[in-house]
Amino acid sequence: MLDIDTELLTKYIIPEKQSAKRHYGVHPYFTRRPWNVVNAYIKKYSPDNGIVLDPFGGSGVTVVEASVLGRHGIQIDINPLGNFIANQLLIPAVDIQNLEKIGIALITKAKQILMEQGLDKILEDYWHPIGIKLPKDSDVEYVEDLFSDQQTAELAVLKKLIDDVEQKDFRNLLLLTFSATISKTNKTFISAKNRKASRGGATILSIYRYHVPQVPVELFPIEQFALRFKKILLAKKETNLVLKGDGAVYLESATNMTSIKDTSIDYIFTDPPYGSFIKYIKLSTMWNSWLGFTVPEDLAQKEVIAQNNNDQQYFELLKQSAKECYRVLKEGSYLSLVFSHRDLSYWRKIYNIFADAGFNYKISVPQPLKTVWSLHKKQNDLSSFAGEVIITFKKEALSNNRKTQSLKDIIDNLFSFDETLPTDELCLNLIPKLYESGILDEIGNKKIILSDFLKGHLIYNAEQKSWQKTH
Fold first, then answer.
1. How many helices (H) and strands (E) does the chain have?
2. Share of the chain above pLDDT 90, in %
3. What is the pLDDT of residues 209-224, one digit of tens each?
């Protein structure tokens, strides 16, 4: 279907900058991957009117961009929160005027109830989650501990008023606004330095656990709901114009996609978990409890992560997912997956798992991120990558398309135009070459942190956070 040309593909797939802002990435839970990268891959690798699948769908970037391009998008995910967000973004032809009217009336009513009834009565009379335990590594024990009385009361009022909205699509879009509001109105929220209080984020989404800082910022739900609602209106005005195809979202595991027929998919773009670093199901506890979502236990057990630091379990589940992807993909079609990890053994396995499933490796394209979101990364340049590699395979007869190359030659080529390279740029460009040359296979399954591997061959400047060749 497509000729693979490394130079052309790299230029085509990686836009130098985003050409326009997407308003529908309005949810803090929404992945921060640039929409135009996903859009470009779908456009490149899937036919017009084709079926595009993301078996680790998250909050819907792939399925939405497929719809924007006139494809039929399918999302599989075990987390009802992500599927809920994706479904709301996919709602076509929303009556914006009526939605705005209902939303403004709801906000006005919420303020009135708060003023007339007071906190104590609201906390007594209105439902809010109580007794739902957070993950063990959280700073507090229960979901209700994440909110002040004021925040709980305002959220409870908003939730009751939203539940009373009769029209389903309007009710769900208001619930989407509500779920985005929760992200900013809890005790894990901290402000960005030297910016106004509301310009910050929840530690849940920066260090990936429920950490309550000593001095949290208290934002108030009704006010934040109103601000978020304006963004939802903008988002739906945009999707009214740009959605061309349809989409389907299924609560299933990527290890057993019963809703997908054999050889029915034209292209797969997906972003599987990177080991045990981010446990999305547990991190979603706060949202799922307020929204009334539950994750079936049988699905939770199939979350593709290294539970209890069990790498073997993670790779076994990922192997099952790769086989399922092979089963549903049409012959001659492509699969692209996003990956990042600092352990070289993980990279070796991720490449080999999909090759062993029957896919023929084609190309890897680095995707450095210009914005660093992880506090952990900011504090230690060598601890993780601010970027990822997008690896593309094809369902076709296997061929040996890897070229033997020495590590010295690889490093010389990477430094051919630069005397020094920052960690992220160096690592993200080096890893595919290690696989393509067979060096990853020589390393084997032994855990090797990439920065430690590099220190045996290059010099690291901690002050400048860059690397240079030895002389």
1. 18, 12
2. 60
3. 899 998 878 999 999 9
What are the pLDDT digits (tens) for 237-292? 999 999 998 999 999 999 999 999 999 999 999 999 876 656 778 889 999 999 99
Residues 6+ apart with CB under 8 A from 28: 180, 183, 184, 201, 202, 205
pTM above 0.85, yes or no: yes
Sorted by where each begins, the domain ranges of the chain are 6-90+243-403, 96-239
Kindly report the number of other CB atoms within 10 A of residue 298's CB atom: 10
Report the amino acid identity of residue 144.
Answer: E
Radius of gyration of the chain (CA): 23
Strands 265-270 and 329-339: parallel
Backbone angles phi, psi at 459, to 5 degrees: -105, 130
DSSP state string for 282-295: HHTHHHHHHHT---
Beta strands in 39-195 (DSSP E): 51-54, 72-77, 189-191
- Fold type of domain 6-90+243-403: Rossmann fold (3.40.50)
Residues 23 and 182: their CA atoms lie apart, in Å, by: 19
- 113-119 contacts, C-beta under 8 A, 24 or more apart: 113/157, 113/161, 114/153, 114/154, 114/157, 114/222, 119/149, 119/150, 119/153
